[in-house]
Amino acid sequence: MRFVRVLVALGVAVGAGVVLVPQRAPAANANKPRTPVIWGAVPCMQIVDRSQTPVLHLDYTIATEESTDRTADEVGDSRTHQFFAFAAQHFEAAPPTWITQADIDRAALVDGMVEPEGIGPDDVLETAARWPAGEWVRITPDDMRVPITFAQAMMGVDWDLADVTPGTWLVKGYTWEPTKNLWATRWGAVKVIASAEQAADAGPSLILLPDEASLVPGMEYAPPGCIDAPAGSTVTLEYGVVEGSLEPDWQVLEEDLEVTTGELALAFEVPSCVAGNVKLRATITDPSGASYVAYSPGNLTIVQDPADEKACRDSDEGCGCVAGGPAVPPAVPWLFALVIPCLRRRRREANLPS
Question: 294 and 167 in one domain?
């Protein structure tokens, strides 16, 4: 009777146009939470003279330890940490989640869910056009990834600066446990200089820090961050409405504001008619023409009552509301639309304390 039921089921499936194919079982660790590097409080801008400090020590912690009892479909060095430094920021804060093609190939040997043919060059840090080799360095070699244990974390990580190009660097911790490898950014710049006499060669530096502020149209907002730059440097601040993973169309908020070294004290007034999640981009340029680009670590949440949004749409200011996120469902009046205002450009000098 069981055989008859199977035949009947197959007949129904074929009659319905359904093709029965074998399904790959997920890797045994597929849904297991990964353990990220946790960075504590760090200076917003740490200037390191490599002629005086050839090795920089970095502290980190973890929330839980990882077992060394790996499943059969894990590579031998799975559940480990690695450390990198990046000399440039991009709109997408996280680099690709694969480091090398060799990592992909050996993971595919033990994990049937890893399909090398479906992973392109831009999905791999070593070959991604968006992350060229000159913009990043390994702090930890690939073959020296460290175990995720409390004892290891207490040791921290040492970064050899001997061959590091002077400039502004962000350090990232990498959790290697395919296929869900992940990154954790240390939100504080390490500005490497060759010597005190050659400090200017490192260029200007600006970092925007994470912020959980909730904004409303008309308020003054000063993004947290800091600067290290020579006198005469200027900053241009832009915003972009974020839609999916695409880089937004950047719009100028403030342009060529004179700035000085110290805490970032650049404020702008939130205008009234752009709806959606918003990211900031700040470009600092010194008198020599050298520049550095920083992005807000996350999206800004700018809240407006739906009634005010309608008033914005009906206004004759000539700005129109540009949607960058989901509309507010009329059946749920307590939801707020995410918005920021129409741009009221103002040119003013931003005085930053030293």
Answer: no
Neighbouring residues of 169: CB distance < 8 A, sequence distance ≥ 6: 85, 86, 87, 189, 190, 191, 192
Is the per-residue pLDDT at 334 higher than 70?
Answer: no
According to DSSP, residue 88 is labeled S
Peptide bond into 80 cis (omega under 30): no
Asked whether the beta carbons of 277 and 215 are under 8 A apart, the reply is no
CB neighbours (10 Å) of residue 192? Answer: 23
Task: Please give the pLDDT value at position 318.
Answer: 44
Please enumerate in sequence order all residues whose Cβ is within 8 A of that of 14, keeping only pairs 6 or more positions apart, or say none. none
In a domain, 1, yes or no: no
Cα separation, 215 vs 237, whole angstroms: 17
Please give the DSSP secondary-structure letter assigned to residue 117.
Answer: G
The pTM of this model reads 0.81
Residue 211 sits in the same domain as residue 135: no
Alpha-carbon gap, residue 139 to 68, rounded angstroms: 23
CB contact at 8 A, 166 and 193: yes
Contact 251, 202 (CB under 8 A): no
Listed range (16-20, 53-57, 65-69, 158-162) with the worst mean pLDDT: 16-20
Same domain for 93 and 53? yes
More confident residue, 6 or 292: 292
Residue 351 lies in a domain: no
Look-up: residue for tokens 């499936």? 13
Q: Report pLDDT for 19.
A: 40
Q: CA 209, CA 297: separation in Å to the nearest integer?
A: 6
Q: Distances in Å between the alpha carbon of 40 and those of 34, 153, 200, 296?
A: 19, 12, 29, 19
Q: Summarize the confidence of residues 190-215 as an average pLDDT.
A: 94
263-280: average pLDDT: 82
Determine the average pLDDT of the residues in 172-186: 97
d(CA 77, CA 127): 22
pLDDT interval class at 15 (50, 70, 90): very low
DSSP string, 133-160: GGGEEESS-GGG-EE--HHHHHH-EEEE
